[in-house]
Amino acid sequence: MSSRAQRRINPAQHRLPLGAVKITGGFWRERQDINRDVTIPAAARRLEETGTLRNLRRAAGHEPAGDGFAGKLFADTDVYKWLEAVAWEQTRSPSAALADWQKSVSALVAAAQEPDGYLNSYTRLVLGGKRFGDLEKGHELYCAGHLLQAAVAQSRATGDHTLLEVATRFADLLCTTFGPGRLEGIDGHPLIEMALVDLYRETGTPAYLELASYFVEARGHGLLEPPGHHGPAYFQDHLPVREVRTLAGHAVRALYLAAGATDVAVETGDEALLEALKLTWRTMVESQLYLTGGVGSRWYGEAFGDPFELPPDAAYCETCAAIASVQWSWRLLLATGESQYADLIERTLYNAVISGVSLSGDKFFYVNTLKVRQHAFADDQRSAVAGRQPWFGTACCPPNVMRTLSALDQLVATSDDDGVQVHLYAPASVTAELPAGPVAFEMKTRYPWHGTVTVRVTESPGEPWTLGLRIPAWADGCTLTVNGVEQPAGPLRRSWSVGDAVVLELPVQARRTTPDCRIDSVRGCVAIERGPLVYCFEQLDQDVVLDQTAVVPGDLVERERPELLGGVTTVDVPARDGRTLTAIPYYAWANRTVGPMTVWIDAR
Amino acid sequence: MSSRAQRRINPAQHRLPLGAVKITGGFWRERQDINRDVTIPAAARRLEETGTLRNLRRAAGHEPAGDGFAGKLFADTDVYKWLEAVAWEQTRSPSAALADWQKSVSALVAAAQEPDGYLNSYTRLVLGGKRFGDLEKGHELYCAGHLLQAAVAQSRATGDHTLLEVATRFADLLCTTFGPGRLEGIDGHPLIEMALVDLYRETGTPAYLELASYFVEARGHGLLEPPGHHGPAYFQDHLPVREVRTLAGHAVRALYLAAGATDVAVETGDEALLEALKLTWRTMVESQLYLTGGVGSRWYGEAFGDPFELPPDAAYCETCAAIASVQWSWRLLLATGESQYADLIERTLYNAVISGVSLSGDKFFYVNTLKVRQHAFADDQRSAVAGRQPWFGTACCPPNVMRTLSALDQLVATSDDDGVQVHLYAPASVTAELPAGPVAFEMKTRYPWHGTVTVRVTESPGEPWTLGLRIPAWADGCTLTVNGVEQPAGPLRRSWSVGDAVVLELPVQARRTTPDCRIDSVRGCVAIERGPLVYCFEQLDQDVVLDQTAVVPGDLVERERPELLGGVTTVDVPARDGRTLTAIPYYAWANRTVGPMTVWIDAR
């Protein structure tokens, strides 16, 4: 290995090998199956109907160039993210249809690649082949990044190297094009940083890491001309990444960059950069995060707001930003092993991410608001008031949800030299190769509806090893037993035997949450949470106008409603004048009708 | 007169002739003089430095076309609005410089006009003369509207018909170009409606009113393709104007359209349209209006928000929108005579409009926020956090302030058959020709700092006539005397003698204002108002962090501070822990430093 690799920060935890975790049932498995059965096939049709695949056919010369280009200039990324979902999905549930899609669309992508490795259908069809002329808005490296990520997924998930060959040829071209003394520039939309590190990890080619590091370091030095009314923070060019302490500008860009910078910090041994990113993450959590885990409080610029600027009604909370947040937290979790990162992953997945797709799997939210007022008016298909949409002009969010769900098994657990850490609770089987030997266990739970998580060891060496079960920050009073004997909450290190049973009891019962007093728009309000789920009040469940009531102290009454919204537990909350309000999980709102809704409710 | 004119709605009040009111001192006169001495001359330099005048020289062929066009495609309007200010200014305070500017720039505008009457330097220099190809974003009729308004001002104020000839030739071309059976289209940015009615009133040409009426009626039928992510409400094409009950979309556009539609309703006798506009105005005031009179709660789309969506920190409150609101209210005041419209004019002028220019007269706010947080970050020159700016890339606001201040005398008073109504209180002389004969009076006051307004009659016929002095809605407990004898509050009808003295005592002392409970972000807060002035707290006046304190009940202590901010009365407000917070008039904030500021403050 090179000296660079020797400087690597030793991460606290490691990804388990692909296939080591299988979610076998429960909340997420239901959503994964809908993703496989409805969402991914529907997207295949959309990519055709919208002309997105035709762009690639035209770029490949399989069809006459005709009347130009369909969709936004970054339309290729819809294909790449969908291909990534198709790849991961085959580790869960392979099928002939998935294999056919992978084969035919990957071949199409390969055919659209130019002889020197460049690939972008917009450049070919609209710009007459002129490359990198508009790094601010051109999205060429952003498109490349999604291609690289799809290629790595395909290689890891299926062993098919079709896209990986395309990606390495393109990445090689980027390495000879960009960098000090070459084209000194960065892309207006970060992503390439994270993607190049992924490709470096998959191929071992140091030049990819070096280019990723260059893109991170070159940022914040005014290489980009700010677009329109926006200043340089719009695309994170206002400060060097290591000097940032508060995220600013376009939320998806900021978070993809932060995730990529975290990768670079780990792989290059840059402790100072990692520390800066951890501080920035902390600032985000303390002052820029919605209760749902959603981020981005401004429609204008799709951007982070100032600290504590978190209006529920005007929240942007783009689905893609929530996904990017999960990707960043995942990298920090691996680097540090700190459960706060897994806490945020869980909060974000159960609320800000999965709210982005309908229960039916075929409609999407771009914006995940926390409040819809009486008489709200939608003048944008991204508005929650318009309801979930089958697709968008800018269709970034739907395939981002698809690849996230298809890859979700990978986030359930990690390992270190000493054992296995479980981060997400779901019915699942987990295997790991530890220094002590191979281990395996089955997890059973009805989480998030019920708080009991049972882990039964199915394989264990004679040597002791550690089983870590994450205790969420909200889980005061949880209990932990091994074979019926109570244990202190914390990692369980022991010599395990097959059949050993660990039972974690998480207190998922409904609770009231009060906001930070510096958030203007929810002062005096409470929200209802239950386990990892944020709840909300939809007008159609109430017999009083939401804007004209307030909740009062009293018991929260839970009801299991298997017939409602795919099966949820509702929470009845006492309100003024002897009324009762009924809350449902936030992720499930807007699946019956779209009307007034609120997460936070007056409590005075 | 035509039958159309006979259908006209008889307005309740009339504009006084130009020159009938002269503001002779006080708050507004100081700002008018700075406008004359600093703002208008500085703008003359800016129009040159930015290339805005050079665009017209190139379009006129006075300079080679060279390297194209400077600024935004509607840059001509900066010149027109400035010319309008130059025109009105000559009724207040004529000078050789004003006359020279008027002559030279009007000649330039005339020279840039094409033989058939069309005029737009962007069309000429960039579009190769191709007209009306992009009604959505092209702003050609918007530019025409500002030209027409400048021309009418010039004609009325100075008798110079140079621009009026240009305007009528252009308007004649528009009349033969647009309309049923011709080019059926409307402009993405309303204004032409109001301007055509102005020109109709100045020239008597019915075709201009007919075209204005067409543009109003054609709106809301999907003639425009919505731009970008925005829907048709962005430019008020979502509903026919007469069906609108809640303003939506871009605030300046919505308000210019509403003002123009009000003109059309009055001039065409369309009572139903006028009623719809009055209802819409009422909805705006009850649910879409900031305390300052500012409107537009969304940066995204520079738009009105949903009812009660009025975040103080994220407020857009564009200076131009406040000015447009004044223009609309003025038209409704004339049509109805109802003082609620004058109340809003006053609130808006003293707060949301005049905050848009620095006390020095040479720096401008585009956005008039009601709160700047701790650690706020500006990534846009329009942000209040960036401080007032000498000019903007889109420079609509500065010359809009200029023309408003130069024409302000015209808003002080109106007349009807029975008398004169005073709407704004300022040291001023007022004359009117009533059916009873000529009347004149002098107004003396130190308003808004002091509540005493003295009106002394200086000319009166023998016949009785009515003097109406507006009682602002906040002025509970005001008193009114004539020659020392108390009168019931209301219009004073009598036979006046020269020397008669009317004294109105308005209770301007500081008061606490509580918000509508449906506005989330200020729930539990109060604001301080004093007379027509909204107050705010700037961090630099406090010894406690604004975000970490709250006001408590107790006396509000006023202090006259002639040395502070050009002379203001401050208000000390008791706060938690025995502290005192000091409030200054909102319009004067950000004239020392730009830091945290808030209008609304926690009161719990």
Briefly note the structural class of the backbone of chain A.
alpha+beta
- Mean of residue pLDDT of chain A? 96
Helix content bin of chain A = 25-40%
Percent of residues in β-strands of chain A: 15-25%
* Radius of gyration of chain A, CA atoms, in whole angstroms: 24 Å
Biggest interface, CB < 8 A: A-B, 46 and 46 residues
Largest sheet of chain A: 9 strands, antiparallel
Provide a short characterization of the protein structure.
The structure is a homodimer of 604-residue chains. By secondary structure, the first copy, chain A, is α+β, with helices and mostly antiparallel strands. Helix content of chain A is 35%, strand content 17%.
Structure, explained:
2 copies of one chain form a homodimer. With 604 residues, chain A is α+β, with helices and mostly antiparallel strands. Chain A is built from 15 helices and 23 strands. The first copy, chain A, has helices at residues 3-6, 26-49, 52-59, 76-92, 96-112, 121-125, 140-158, 162-177, 192-203, 206-218, 251-268, 271-287, 319-336, 339-353, 397-406, and strands at 14-15, 21-23, 249-250, 303-304, 371-372, 413-416, 419-422, 428-434, 437-445, 452-459, 465-469, 479-482, 485-487, 492-494, 501-505, 511-513, 525-530, 533-538, 557-561, 568-574, 580-585, 597-598, 601-602. In chain A, helix 2 (26-49) crosses helix 15 (397-406) and helix 9 runs antiparallel to helix 10 (206-218). The N and C termini of chain A lie far apart (63 Å).
